[in-house]
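HUMAN: Quick job: go over this next protein and say how the chain folds.
***
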Amino acid sequence: MAPPVRRQRALFIWLPRPLAPPGPRRVFLFALRRVGAGCCALRLLFLFSFFGGVPVSVSSLPLVGFCGPRVAPAGAAPLVSSLVRSALASGRGVAAGCALGVDSLAVSSALALGGAGSLSVFAAFGSSGLGSVASCSAPLASLSAAAAAGASVSWWAGGAPVRGGLLPAPARLAARSLAFVRAVAASGAGCGLVAVVGALPSSPLALRRASAGRPWVSSGSGSWSAVGAAAALGVPVVVFPLGGVAPSALPLLAGGGSWSPAAAAGLWSAGWRWVPAVAAA
């Protein structure tokens, strides 16, 4: 069955935009000098929120976002393909970032299944390839092919170049991931986030006080930070632990809750769904 015809709408999401005056530029450079590499991206992300955003086009369908490590765990490829097929068959759209690994698997699976018209991709770089990060960004050709096939590709979803140069890659990648999660949340009832993971976060998510107002927290893993942000925004989250990650070791998220099997049988039974404390009560 062909996927539903997708309509486009403009969604105003907080994202950094080019800055004309030199003053804010000096603020960024000052921040870069004064904070360490570990927290620089997160502090810059807070600074960028002061400057407004740029419009991002997303699907009018409820979106199922896919995230995971840049080196996909063993067994991830067939699992992601099956999950993308399930999402498209349910009449939902598919969303992913621009990274190698699980992001690329989700994008290629949607295209292979004829779901380009239901695919939204969020790139931290431009359509010319400017700003791509060799160690983690998917090849420009793959995203350009997705756009040519009918997918919605939001270039510079992590923030366009400011006067004098690019924003730091860690800040752009974090902002791209937050834009991705916010777009999934804004797509309405039926949305969700699927994370295929092969390791646990290095920092506990439950202790970082994520909230709907400030959903992004640093966890040492972009995928797990996306999971925490999605949960803080009320997006249903399902995690598929691979690579020897025990379900019993899955970290608690901010606000309290627990992990439960996503389904009693079938494809989704291998996943674990986050049940917030309020929903469980």
